[in-house]
UniProtKB/TrEMBL annotation:
It holds the Pfam family Glyco_hydro_1. Belongs to the glycosyl hydrolase 1 family. This is Beta-glucosidase. It comes from the Bacteria. The active site is at E347.
Amino acid sequence: MSSPFLWGVASSAFQIEGALAEDGRAASVWDTFAQRPGAIRDGHSPAAACDHYRRWEEDVDLLDRLGVNAYRFSIAWPRVVPRGRGAVNRAGLDFYDRLVDALLARGITPVPTLFHWDLPQALEDGGGWRSRDTAYAFAEYAAVAADRLGDRVGRWITLNEPVVHMAYGHAFGVHAPGLTLDVPDVLGVAHHLLLAHGLAARELRSRGLEALLTNNYSPVAPATGSAADADAAGAYDALHNRLFTDPVLTGAHPDLSAFGAKEVPGVRDGDMELVLGSVDGIGVNYYNPSVVAAPGPGSGLPFDFGEVPGAPTTAFGWPVVPEGLGRTLDLLVERYGDALPPLYVTENGASYADAVAPDGRVADPERIAYLEGHVGAVEAARGRGVDVRGYFAWTLTDNFEWAEGYHQRFGLVRVDHATQVRTPKDSFAWYRDLIASRTGA
């Protein structure tokens, strides 16, 4: 009998948990980065976030009310192995143990992510993802988490959006750890992230568990029919969509010559063999497509971005194009064929500036329209034969949105970050009813 389709929501530890210095948790790169003047919009502090560490039972009750049958969350590496390697913090593991049991008691499948960008600061001090040793530290941490939770959790995600962490954190400096490295060093970070995935997948699979890798995907179109724009679109596609997918499904890196790279540095004998075939599923995070043009003077990159014509935008300024999700799923099938494992849409959502009305209601019709369009794109793709096995809306609660602080609200539940009061939005009721209609609940 095939497993039921997973209808869920997704979250990440650093964005919701708070309690950043409790129960033995040590600092992550994001704790350090958030203290830099100007790093976080308006100086917002992640110290409390959504206070999920204390209010997790309330949030599990919300999941139960929502009717999801799966919940994607992340485990905070610095809460479990505070220095990244060595001593394990049992109190931190206990938190996730309680969470997993509570989810299962409500019929909700836990889908944990091992790395959602919160590298222990102690590892960053030793070189972070610039160091090959960090990949081995990650595998050790994966084994610790799997040994504690693997008797109840069968499906694991190793890394979340490594291309975003690589680029925003190590090339552009706008995310933690806030570095602006040269291209060879950035590509070295990419390889160590891929190696970390491969090593962790080996640990998970040796315990009879599934290993997934979640990537951010954006279908790319050239701004015009010119050859220069087509070349630019190809360069961006290789970087954004293929750098962390080609190796695990084909055993080779995409063509990165547009970035002046003949090869990815740091690759040793056996690395690509380890990475090839290391996924039991691909997580697809989709928010918007990209229009790419040839770079202008002084760009520093082999591409520039254009506007998606005629598309409405979210509060983040991202174009709303539901058919782009369907195109993403089709492209993965076209590109990788029989090598493609099952797909899971592990993030999809939109930020809008919603507010609580005097009657207590939070109306968010734009978010409902966004979700309706994208769920429709997933279901249409499944109708075309694409093997999509889950859809996770981003996110349950308004959270700490990285460098944007608390300005961007993606949640189905509004959070007053001064009081931590949770108010389900109209989209919460819409998604609840959708899930019920699809599952017969």
